[in-house]
Amino acid sequence: EDQVTQSPEALRLQEGESSSLNCSYTVSGLRGLFWYRQDPGKGPEFLFTLYSAGEEKEKERLKATLTKKESFLHITAPKPEDSATYLCAVQTDNTDKLIFGTGTRLQVFP
Amino acid sequence: SAVISQKPSRDICQRGTSLTIQCQVDSQVTMMFWYRQQPGQSLTLIATANQGSEATYESGFVIDKFPISRPNLTFSTLTVSNMSPEDSSIYLCSVERTMNTEAFFGQGTRLTVV
User: Fold this and answer.
1) Nearest CA to CA, how far is B17 from chain A (Å)?
2) What average pLDDT score do residues A83-91 get?
3) Greatest alpha-carbon span in chain B
4) How far is B16 from chain A (nearest CA, A)?
5) Which of A95, B18, B31, B46 is deepest in the core (most CB within 10 A)?
6) Which chain A residues are within 8 Å of B99, Cβ to Cβ?
């Protein structure tokens, strides 16, 4: 069964304290891995798509990487406005639908 | 990206009633989906809305409970029928411009059933 697991469930960081979020996946065939940011009361906001192992994408303080088993979302020198829930999702060769992980709730304190 | 308008943004409904949620996109898209996000949980796909034909439902979701329409390439509706408190959730519309590309989401409809 295709599965996506995110860790940690919650993360508290001091402003400027870099860290990484993990997304592990077990799928029959990976077509793409997606990262989203979700603020309270809003729909997920698209961040990155990764398609193959070794691929990296960057946007401001965020950098996403992909291996054959997992993806990391690295947050460099975070700011309070980076506080949100970060969701990982995979799309497999067998279907067009997205399979979501349970998310990591990030809080960045000044 | 895509601009997605979802209505209503929130509602409080009596049990036994039905609510229809609308999703309007600013341009034609190939794929439209409906998700549910229960409190503190991640997103679960309800169904794929197919233009001009019946929606494709995921395991655990049925047409009688969640009828879906998609009359054209920019609009879809999801109805939550005969509601119970267990249906209290956020319902999200999602679109992909073409198959196997990134999905964009509406702001969601926060439904509370009392």
Assistant:
1) 24
2) 96
3) 39
4) 25
5) B46
6) 96
| CATH number of the domain encompassing residue B28 | 2.60.40.10
Q: What pLDDT does residue B53 have?
A: 87
The domain in which residue B19 lies consists of 4-109
Query: CATH: 2.60.120.10, 3.40.50.10800, 2.60.40.10, 3.20.10.10. Which one for A3-109?
Result: 2.60.40.10
The beta-carbon neighbor of A96 closest among B6, B58, B100 is B100
The verdict on residue B114 lying in a domain is no
Interface of B with A in 4-43 (CB under 8 A): 4, 6, 31, 33, 41-43
What gap in Å lies between CA B52 and CA B70, rounded to an integer? 7
C-alpha dihedral sign at B48, A7, A63, A81? positive
Q: What angle do CA B33, A90, A104 make, to 5 degrees?
A: 100
- pLDDT tier for residue B102 given thresholds of 50, 70 and 90: confident
Between β-strands A104-109 and B31-37, what pairing exists: parallel, antiparallel or unpaired? unpaired
Residue B96 counted as domain residue: yes
Q: How far is A88 from chain B (nearest CA, A)?
A: 10
Size of interface A-B (CB pairs under 8 A): 50
CA separation, residue B78 to residues A64, B22, B62, B65, B75 (Å): 34, 7, 12, 10, 11
B43 interaction partners in chain A (CB closer than 8 Å):
44, 87, 89, 98, 100
Query: Tens digit of pLDDT for each residue in A29-77?
Result: 899 999 999 999 899 999 999 999 999 999 999 999 999 999 999 999 9
